[in-house]
Write a structure and sequence with these properties.
α4 crosses α7 and α5 runs antiparallel to α9. This protein has 10 helices and 2 strands. It is globular, with a radius of gyration of 18 Å. The chain has 257 residues and is mainly alpha-helical. It comes from Halorubrum xinjiangense. GO terms for molecular function: endopeptidase activity.
Amino acid sequence: MSTTIHSQADAQSRGIDSPRRAILVALGLLFAAAIPPLAIVEGFKLVQAQFGYGGDLAVTFVGGGLLATIAIGLIGVAYHRLRPVTVHVPRRLPTLREGGWVVAGIAISFVAAILIGVGMQVLNVVPPTNFSAAAAAERPVLIYGLAIVGALFIIGPIEEYFYRGIVQGRLREQMGPVAAIAIVSVGFALGHVPSYWIGGSDLLSLGVFFALLSIAAGSVVLGAIYERTRNLVVVIVIHSLINAISFSLALLAALGA
């Protein structure tokens, strides 16, 4: 039996909602998951400069990136306490069928990314540089090693709790799963824009556009699987493994260069 964190009925008992209000709240949450964390990273740059590490993007990535990710989780928790949202977290181990969804989710996400990558090659689009790639330019083993650990135990769990659990769950109450997945996927992709800005990429380039398209496609897969399985743990595992595999491949590429 699936156990949820607060029920939808409990959430709606706090007031009558509307699709318009749900969208506005979701947009506010998505904005809060993008701009304030960016401000945290920029603030961390100023602090680290006072300790003689100014301009060291590796330090910024480790310290500022960690604080920014934690901030997203805290925003989700704060909103969840103010306005309960149904978050599906079964008190059991994933079933064999859910394990199949994990494999399928990873496979579909990588196929979509590969197809988008092929399109970029056909159009001679230069891949953009994001925060992690820029930070790993001089110390790939350190940065990608920490990124792999962070992907498995910090980034995946926090981002899935926030985007799928809180925001998608909030939108689903008033708009249904399809619209919720679509809005969250656009917001999830746009939430990665600061990463490319910090990485020094031209935000108006085709490279960034295709990168965000790939992120949005992956978000659609995660959102659909979450609705299908009603198990946040499943999408956490998918997200975490996708990021860990991607960072591992980036590390291997850097070492082979």
